[in-house]
Give the backbone structure.
Amino acid sequence: MNENKQKRRRKRENASINDEETGENQGEVKTKDLKEILTSLILLEGQEKNEQEEFAKANREERIQFEENQKKKTRTMMDYYSKFQESHKDLDQIDGVRRRKTRAKALTVAIGAITMENSVSISDENSKDNRSNTAARAGAGPGRRLWVKNRSTDWWDQCNSPEFPEEEFKRAFRMGKGTFEMICNELTSVVAKENTMLRDAVPVKQRVAVCIWRLATGEPLRLVSKRFGLGISTCHKLVLEVCSAIRKVLMPKYLQWPDEENVRRIKDEFEAISGIPNVVGSMYTTHIPIIAPKISVAAYFNKKHTERNQKTSYSITVQGVVDPRGMFTDMCIGWPGSMPDDQVLEKSALNQRANAGLLKGVWIVGSSGYPLMDWILVPYSQQHLTWTQHAFNEKIGEIQRIAKDAFARVKGRWGCLQKRTEVKLQDLPVILGACCVLHNICELRNEEMEPNINFELVDDEMVPEIGLRSANAMKARDTIAHNLLHHNHAGTSFLS
């Protein structure tokens, strides 16, 4: 029995020893597997890091190569530009030398001709006729034949004659002879030129006539040149010179903000028209078509005109304020056509005048394209208006229509504003300012327009992002609307 027990005990001991050895072997296997996994992870991480470094290095190399290529392109363009400028300067110098040689040669020929004719007159002392003819030829005659191309001035000579009918003159120049003479007299001191030995200066009347005809018809310069017997470049130069003279001499007299006495008169006339007190002006902004400029093209792109006419349109803006007779008292000319009315207003001298407190207590009436401010009165633009608001809009529309009709007459009278012009963008404000001054002169002198030149004005209003900019102005507008309806000043067309 004891031996059996001992045998069983030894078996159990041997079994436990075997189990321990098996466990140790399994532990060693698990440890080995874990080491292999960690080693694989470390290898993968190292490989990924190497790939990232290679990718970053490749990116750096590509960026460096790109920058070097850009620098090479820039240097190439700068070299090309400098060479172009140098060649342009060389051409200018060559052209200048050629012109100087031509002038010197022509002057030499003229002096030779004069000298020859003088010698003929001295040798022929016994003939008075020969002396007089020689003296006449020694004057401006030879110079004119050398320097001026002979062109026909028959059309202008006919218009300038006293026998030319008044109605035909007015049809041609949009004004009567009396108004034309007055403008010429006002501008003489600025536009008149003296005769030279080689050519006679263009007379003042012809200078002014070239400008006004060009503004009135918008005719191309090559046709203006043929009509007046002058060169194309001369006509272009005359238009700019006369328009600048109009802006310098006539604008201070005929287009200025009214003084206190005239402000009172304007208030009374506007109140008589609409029943709205303290109105000193009616404001409108129109667009003048232009050829696509070479710079800032997007700024001058007119989206509304393009969509309406199905044709790409570019324009500049003209903002004007008029009195009850439709005469301009303030102008803001030349901002790009992509700007809405409220942004043009913010850029204008009129807004600066208002910010300085010079328009306190008065109203300037505008359309719904302008914001309601302490000095700008605009119609109600929300839906479902009350009778009071309808009555106010009807009366304020009568005032606003005065400015719109004034711009329609300006564009009708001066046809150059109806189509894209050849004038450069920087010269347009001078041209447009001259048109507005001439409009005021014609209105002041009661120059009636021909029915066939009436112009239908179409401008797209863009509602400002912030239409109400003054709580006080809202209350004042409501008070005015209430007074119009309850004091029998409002119309009744909105009821029909």
Confidence is low (pLDDT under 50) at residues 113-146, 492-496.
